[in-house]
Amino acid sequence: DGKSWEVWVQGLILEPRLSRKEFDVLDLLYRRKGEVCSKDDIAAHAWPERSHGDVSDQEIEQCMRRLRLRVEPDPSQPRYVLTLRGSGYKFFVG
Predict the structure, then answer these.
(1) Which parts of the chain fold into alpha helices (H)?
(2) For residue range 37-66, what is the model confidence (pLDDT) as tens digits?
(3) pLDDT digits (tens, 9 = 90+) for 69-91
(4) Alpha-carbon separation of residue 71 from 5, 27, 49, 85 (angstroms)
(5) Do residues 54 and 71 make contact, with C-beta atoms less than 8 angstroms apart?
(6) How many whole angstroms separate alpha carbon 42 and alpha carbon 25?
């Protein structure tokens, strides 16, 4: 829910709520579910206050790691937030 920043995982509201960056990344992935989102796409959406190219790959990877820790049943074997090496990330609902 973009207005309240509420995220539901397996029928339960996620508490505590995601950080703004985590929510913005998840929002982008969810809106484009099934599509690949590049790191540039993610940086532009979640860090709009920073100039293009000013968000490091490491910052994005750390945000994705934190996001997986919060939304994945088993973060070491992600089912929803998938990495496509050399391409980016996608949200999978199957």
Answers:
(1) 20-31, 39-46, 57-71
(2) 999 999 999 998 887 678 999 999 999 999
(3) 999 999 999 999 999 998 999 99
(4) 14, 13, 26, 20
(5) no
(6) 6
